[in-house]
Every structure is written in structure tokens, then in C-alpha cells.
Amino acid sequence: MSKNTNNKNRQITGKFIAIPNSVLDSLAYRSLTGNETKVFIHLCRKYNGTNNGNLVIPYNTVEKDYNLSRQTLFKCLKSLEEKGFIETSRQGRKGVLSLYAVTIYRVDECLKNGYSTHDLKPTIQAKHSWKHYNDKLKSQSNNTKPCK
Q1: Which residues in 25-123 belong to E strands, given as ranges?
Q2: Residue 148 CA: distances (Å) to CA of 2, 145
Q3: Is the pLDDT of residue 33 over 90?
Q4: CA 12 to CA 76: how far, in whole Å?
Q5: How far apart are CA 98 and CA 119, in angstroms?
Q6: I want to staple 118 with a disulfide (CB 3.0 to 4.6 A). Which of 89, 100, 113, 141 is the partner?
Q7: CB 98 within 8 Å of CB 104
Q8: pTM
Q9: In Å, how far are 30, 36, 83, 135, 147 from 141, measured between CA atoms?
């Protein structure tokens, strides 16, 4: 019997998110707080393969589902952007939600009625902006010398 026979019964049902091991194993990802991780996972979960740059995270959903206040969500989004895990693709205003792109995936062209829904240019490859923050953390850890 071949090895593939055992794998035939393994079917992934439902939706799932794919986060590369290189991201999960990085110092940058490990430095995220629990709330930042919740927000990042939520945005990754909204990605369907064709809508990066058009990801939303409404305050009322976060308050209800994740028990996070508006202030905490704002701080998490700001921190995730500073660390390079997300970028704002459209700044929100009264009555209009902000849109985000996750940098571990490529930015997609999202059109509505023939017009782009966000301000980012579509990319062929993921930007992986978090790697800059990861390199910064690595250099900081290399510069710290153990006490004798």
C-alpha cells in the first residue's frame, strides 16, 4: 500500500488561513502582543485570495467578538503598521471604514464599478515589510551582551 492512500481521508473542510512558517518563526511575529496577534489573524482571516488591500476591521465586530475597545484596536493597528505586518490602503473618515492590506500577501487590484477601492498599487509579490522590523530586532539582540 502506498503512502498516499493514508492521505486520501484527510480532507480540509471549511475555510483556513495560510501564514508562512517564516512569519510565525520570526522575532517580529513573536514580539506581537496578544491583542496585536488577534487583530493580525482577524485581517488574515478576511483575505480570500483576491481582496488584499480591501480588508476591513469594524470596531463593533472587534468589541463583540474579541472584547477589544476602540482605543486598543487603534493602538494595535498602529503598532502592526509600524512593525510592517499591515499597511493602510485607504484612510477612513466619518461613515467610511479604513481599508488594510496584510504584507505577507500580495496586494490585489480591488475594483468596484470600475474604480479601485483602495489607494495601493497592486503587486505581483508580497512586500514582507515585517522583515525590516525583524532585522532591527535581530541587530538589537546581537548588540546586547550578556552580563558577567
Answers
A1: 86-90, 99-102, 111-112, 115-116
A2: 57, 9
A3: yes
A4: 31
A5: 11
A6: 89
A7: no
A8: 0.82
A9: 14, 22, 16, 10, 14
pLDDT digits (tens, 9 = 90+) for 53-75: 889 998 888 888 889 999 999 99
Pull the grid cell for residue 39: 487583530
Neighbours of 135 (CB within 10 A): 13
Q: Can you give the length of the chain in residues? A: 148
Confidence class for position 2, pLDDT limits 50, 70, 90: very low
CA-wise closest residue to 28 among 134, 102, 104, 132: 134
26 residue type, one letter = S
Q: Is the pLDDT of residue 143 over 80?
A: no
Output the pLDDT for position 25. 93
Answer whether 80's CB lies under 8 Å from 39's CB.
Answer: yes
Which amino acid is located at 75 in the chain? K
